[in-house]
Specification:
This protein has about 270 residues and is of the alpha+beta class. It has one domain. It is built from five helices and ten strands. Strand 4 (about 60-75) and strand 5 form a beta hairpin.
Length: about 270
Amino acid sequence: MATRQRNESNAIAACSFQLVFARAFDPVEMRSFSRLQQSLGDLLPGFLPDTFPTPNFQFGGINMGFGAALGVTMQRINPAGQPQRILRIEGQALNVVWNDYTRWSEVWPQVQRIFNEVLASMNPGNFVVASQLHIVDQFDFIAATEYDAFELYRPGNQYLPAHVSASGTFWHVNQGWWVPDSIDVQGRPAVLNQLNISNIQEGTSQLPGREYSQIEHIQAARSINFPISMAEFNPRVTGMFENMRIANQELLRVLLTDAKLEAMGLQ
């Protein structure tokens, strides 16, 4: 069964970028994020603050509350009503999800701009302590021929057991490992990889939907610990996510056949 990558120049169906801070966002910061409606409205026109009642004073024996932000969501919706891009700010983390990925050189500057606008509304003195890059590649099945796992995946690669070729069309493999040469400030491995590879059939056996192979690669770095000052933040964050992007490409070079790599410009 032949496969076709999701996009013309790559197979990325979705990509997310996460930063985790040492201290949770306080109520003042949460209220200040409302300014993002103006500074990021062109990228993310939908602004959805969360609120919950916080007791403030009593009137007639009843607690009267005011709205305090739990989190903020900004998004862009496509004509079909599905989210194309999402910014979620909650707790100690901010997460940017990009569902209309084109290429890194176009997406990363916009993600960095979002990060910078959020930082501009934060109190000084906080630190980035962890990050995560989550990339989902998809390859659609396009021909009703006999399935061959190794039309897409390189035979004998280290990420797939040999028996997937005898497991039928639909299967799942998941694994995780620490990068051995990534050491944090406490002498522990600092970057965790999670890899989920699946052949998926949407719908039901009576009403089958889309069929595709999916590679989900998550890289999570811990104990980073650098300040949010712009002078240090931008080069550190750019370098960190660029290294993760390169590691993802290296994984694909091991996992996919030469023909697929050539179609994706990774040869």
